[in-house]
Structures are given as C-alpha cells and as structure tokens.
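How it folds
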Amino acid sequence: MTDSPSLFRPSRRQTLLGLGAGAATGLIASPAVILAQTPDAIRFGHLTPRTGFLGPLGEYGVMAVDLAVEEINAAGGVNGRKLEALKEDSVNPQTASTKAERMIERDKVACILGEISSASCLTISQVAARNKTLFVNTGGNSDALRGESCNRYMFHVEHQNSMYVKSCGRSLMAQGLVKGKKWFSLTADYAFGHDLLKVAKRFMEANGGQFAADKLVPTDATDFSALLLEIRAAKPDLVISNLAGNQITNFLKQYSEFGLTFPVAGFGFDTALAWAAGKDNFGGVWPCVWHHLIDTPGTKAFVAAFTKKYGKPPENQAWGDYMAVKIMAQSMNELKSTETAKILEHWEKGAKFDVMKTRQGYFRASDHQLISEMYTITALPAVHFSSRTPFDRNQTLWCGFGLRIGTRSIFFAGDTGWGEVFEHAGRRFGPFDTALVPIGAYAPRALMQAVHADPEEAVRIGRAMQAQRLVAMHWGTIALTTEPAFEPPTRFTAAAAAAGYAPDQAWVMRIGETRAL
C-alpha cells in the first residue's frame, strides 16, 4: 500500500465482487437503530454480524464495545467529551455498506469499527474510502483486505489469514504433520474461507505437503455427516478446518461423535466456538490472536471487568473490538483531535499501543495491519469431571492446553488427575520447554485420585509430556482437602529430584512471584 490517493480507489471489479454476495437483497428491510445522542458526544459506528452463523461472535464484540465505552467515559471520556457507540447488525455485505453510508452521512460518526465477515469489511471499507472516514476492522481475516483491496482509510486490529496459517503451520511442522503428508480440508464457502484456503495451499506446497481433498462448505451447513464419511475413506494424515463461526462448533461435535481419530488442526479460530463444542469434543492445534489466560496486567484487568459485567470471560473477538475502541480513544486523546487525517498519520508513523500482550503493538505502515504476537493452542486431555452449574455435569469443556510462541512451548495441565492419556499426548505433542502441573488437593486418595494428581503423579505428568522444566501449581490457595497445607511442595520437590530434575528445573513459586521463561 502506498500513500498515493489514486491507489486507494476501489476498482469496478473489486466493488462488484464486494457487492455480489448481497446485491439481491435490495434496500435494508430492518429499521435503523435509533439511539439517544448527547449533542457534544463523539460518536462512532459499530457494525458487526449479530445474526446468522457469525452472530455468536458478533455478540461478544458488542459486549466488549459497551464495556470499553463505559470505561472510557468513567475515566473522563475523549478530550472531556462522552463517547457514544451507534451499534447495528451488519447482516450481509450489501446491508453493511448501506448502514455504513448512513452512519457517516446522517449520524456524522467520527469513524466506524467492527465487522467479522471479510466480504462485509470490503464493502464498508469502500464506503469509508469514498467519504475519507476511518474504518477499523476487528474481525475480517482475508489477506486481500491487506493487499489488492487495501485502502488508506482501513486499518486492521484482527490479524490476517497468512499470520494465522504461519503461526499454526510452524507448530504442525514441529510435529511432523506437513512434509510428505496429506491434508483433507473443509473450507467455509465465502470470501474469508476462499482466501484462507489459498493461503493454506501456498504454505503446504512450500513445505512439501499436499491436499488429499479440499471441500467447500456452505455457511448455513449444520450436518457434516457426508463429509465425515469422505474423511474416513480418505484416511488423511491431518484434517484441516478452514471453517468459520458455528460451523466449527458443529464440525467438532460431529467429528467426535463419528469417532474419527485423524489429527485435527484449524487455521481460523475463536475461543467461544471451542467452549460451545462441549466436553471431550474440542481437540487439535489452533492459532489464536489473544486468549483470556494471557498473564499480563492488561489482560487480567479486561477479563476481570468483562466477567464482572457479563458473568463469563471474554474471547478473542471481544479482544479485537475492545482494543479497537481503546486504541481509537487513546489516539484521539493524545492528538486532542478526532480528525481522520491526523489519526491516520499518527498510526502510520508507528504509534505504540498496549494490546494486552507481552509486547506493545503498532500498525504496519504498508498495509495498516496491527503487528502483535500470535499464539498456537493445542487442546490436550485432562482427567476430571466438569460442570458449570448443578445441572450440566460432564457437558462442558475440560482440558489442558499446549501453547507455542515461536520456538518456545508451554504445557498447562489444568486441574487434573493422572492418566495414561498424558503418555500418548507427550509422544504426539511433546517435548515442551515448561509444564505447569497441579500438586495439591489430593487427599484422601480414595476420593480425590480420579480428579487430582498428587505431587508424585504431577511429576509423572510432566515427564510424560517431555517437559524440561516443571512449575508447581494448584496448591495452598484454600483448605480444600485433608493433606497438610505445606506437604505438596515438599513432596513435589523430592519427586522431581528423584525423576532427574535439577533444582532449577522444578519450581515452587512464592505467592505473587513472577519469573521469566
């Protein structure tokens, strides 16, 4: 992307491509959402799908926007003025375009944030470019939005498909699941999925693998049985999900029900979709732009505030919309201006922002992509029952996680007992640099053995996962069980030494202590 205005005008072909999915809908059928507006308020538009297969993710985005606005106004607003969000369901690309036009021309918004559909991002960005108004994309992944369809007025908090593919792909390469292997892919049949499949094929071909098959899946599909039978017959080395929204949840549930054992990975992922899959159904290797368990002050504060307000933790789509509002407000306060031209210049010059990760983020000048850390998550087994209420025993997700960041890797065992599943998982997903293992709440054994490892079993879990370093957790917080309060670390340290771990390889951390890995 360059600074020449002529290069930011969408071509007729790009415009037609963006409008094609919604051209038959005509004018908007639903009434506009009318909000009470303070005359001196700074208004921004928020467009995101709140219905259809992306609706569950859009609702997280809406909740995050409301929280961000509430926090900003409580802190004094933007340059002493209140911030107001005009929120609407984007529905489809045509409707999104029309609503964006109305927000800019009638409601005089300072900018537009949001969206998940890459096709709708394109049409909104075209409206933004014509009107010289800022648009911050919080959920559209397509590489084309950063390439051939890039324009001066569009910025991206959400990361692009090639970043997701490379992040997950490196982990798959480390596990020997790329070179010489055959993949069977399922792809959402719309702009995001098509772009993601293209990027995935490029990665696979460059690293010595091939596709056994790639199938396009309609966005309204809920029954995957025919495709699962094809996967069973193809016997691939890896099943790849290029699906989106609740397609992922339905696929994971049915994959588990069919009893298929081929490894699974995905190049597009939202944590809410894993939560919805249910106990024992979520597995595999997945890339993630943010996770609510990231150990930074910003993430902890966001998760605490979101959970207090809504009764559940935020997921990564919530992070994108929340960060967009915070970045916008911070920039307006720093510049003491809401002018689009000044914000564009500020961001293109490399302004830094706290993005709730271990390093600050910034927008890349060439294509306006936010540059920040990416993560790869592997869902791994845990031995425990699960429930969130008295009425849903063993109906919700319960697992451990493997996390890879570049060349570094961490295994988080979670709340678990010992099981031979760890030996299998260690052979398939190990080794790990560090394993966080639970050492407490284990007595009496007759009662607790099925759900909580004792210190010796905790070391056995770490050894099975081929961890070079062990960190003790899950002890000393409350008097839950009958073992002496300070027995777990003593037994853990002795067991680790007996298993060959040096003192600096078996950590028992003090309350509040922080160590760098």
Summary: Residues 2-37 have pLDDT under 50 and may be disordered. The longest strand covers residues 210-217. The chain has three domains: 5-159+294-371, 162-288, 381-507. The chain is about 35% helix and 15% strand.
